[in-house]
Design goal:
Chain lengths: 160, 160, 160, 160
């Protein structure tokens, strides 16, 4: 199985489908792109997942979240990540490895979804805070993929 | 006159006061920090402007905006910057030189204000698009200072 | 004339040819990629210049350098940029808008060429410091293009 | 025990002392700063480790390296990180969360040490490649701390 398929399966295991992400992309871009629809947003999400740097960020972020859930890290880093303390920013930094390759439109969209937490992002954020699940990295990874897809659609629309 | 004072005067010349910026910082953080008020936000804005990298970004960004207004650049870059074309991202990049030094909270706040354009940011953005003024760099610089101040307040609140 | 051609002409006007850049790329990668030659490096430089973000950085950086030479900015920013003061980092930041889209290999190569200044980068850096020319932005822009090309070659070599 | 002390102990456990890092800082800056000595470099390293973002990066990076050594991640991410594959860049990205807060001088120094691997950085890189140790994140974290310290010394020297 190729790494792209593995990354998509890992996202699915953690509760995030391609359609979940596509719906947020659609909401962000529907006022700016004429012929946008959910199908096009899903196709764009899949194109984002072609990039090796995106796959690496997905696999690494989910590995850390799961490592925290399983209690395999030492107590200090466990506590910091599990509680997603306000000053822990490694999750956002990891997400930036996705966002950066899609330029500044991706960056501002990432900031927006990270703050407003639309759709699935809000759901996994809440789940991570209220249950024994750890979604500290997952919500930022998903936000970054969504922001990258929104940016890619915007760029291709401008280039038409 | 020191460079900090010069940077503040240049912002004022271009239509942005310390109070304009403090009001946005207050709105972003008022739900998260108990003893916040406009005065504290103004003081924080002034602390952000102590940093050499912030002063350099302010002076450079405004110099480019004014250069565009005066028509001193060659036609290609003039057209790209004056129209703040969707794919021009150098303005956001310059703003990042401010945002980066305040960590990931600053980054997500920057994405948020860049997209939602609260207060003075919306006013200068509109003015730049409708008049012969060029505010392509200014709105991002102001957004970055606001985001940096919001992040600084959040960090100091957590550390208490 | 398209923007890519304009960007290449502007680089040429300021003293930097495609071959100058290709030679540095070749030196960086010759020990790691078997079938590398100058022609392949030149082709890669041209692919880097296809990207809108790269073109924007080239045109903006050169516009600022020329603005400084012509004395059209106010005295404070003129002095800071002309002398390329140690704490002025906007030039590196602009270069990062090129480097970021090519991932972390590009970033470390950029740090390397920015510090070691091989080939044309050293020549324009010296010229900028000793004459009335201003190359504050140019040397970083060229370093970024070279680093991006080296990274692109490394990625395609790994994917083979 | 406070988090700074814990981070320093974790670095020590993994084979990196304050003195190891200070020696590289000294070599980078000795030609540029008159009154530099190893003691000053050590003090600067300790100041860098005061920052919460630096502590978080150290603790997270080492936790991942140890997780890989212990075989607690799934096979795909294990293989990618253990072999520090050429296209895996999450380690450099994590290091950037340290480098970014010290501005562009830190960034270029990071690129330089990441490529040239002086002193302890080369030793842990080699050890990670030749033994069953995993130092994929450690060498970049150490490079980032060194680069941040070199930048901090340069800034304070300019400001004198």
């Amino acid at each position: 199985m190729d790494l792209k398929k593995i990354a998509l399966n890992r996202l699915k295991d953690r509760g995030v489908s391609i359609n979940d992400m596509a719906k947020i992309v659609y909401d962000i871009q529907k006022d700016f792109i004429d012929d946008i629809d959910i199908k096009k947003c899903e196709e764009t999400i899949l194109l984002i997942l072609n990039k090796r740097e995106v796959i690496n960020a997905v696999l690494t972020g989910i590995a850390i979240d799961e490592g925290v859930e399983k209690g395999i890290f030492d107590e200090h880093i466990y506590k910091i990540i599990m509680e997603d303390q306000g000053l822990y920013g490694v999750d956002e930094i990891l997400a930036l490895s996705i966002v950066n390759i899609y330029g500044s439109i991706a960056l501002t969209n990432f900031g927006y979804v990270d703050k407003c937490k639309p759709g699935i992002i809000g759901i996994i954020d809440k789940e991570g805070k209220e249950s024994n699940k750890c979604h500290t990295f997952l919500d930022d990874i998903v936000g970054a993929i969504v922001a990258a897809a929104a940016s890619r659609l915007a760029h291709h629309n401008e280039d038409k």
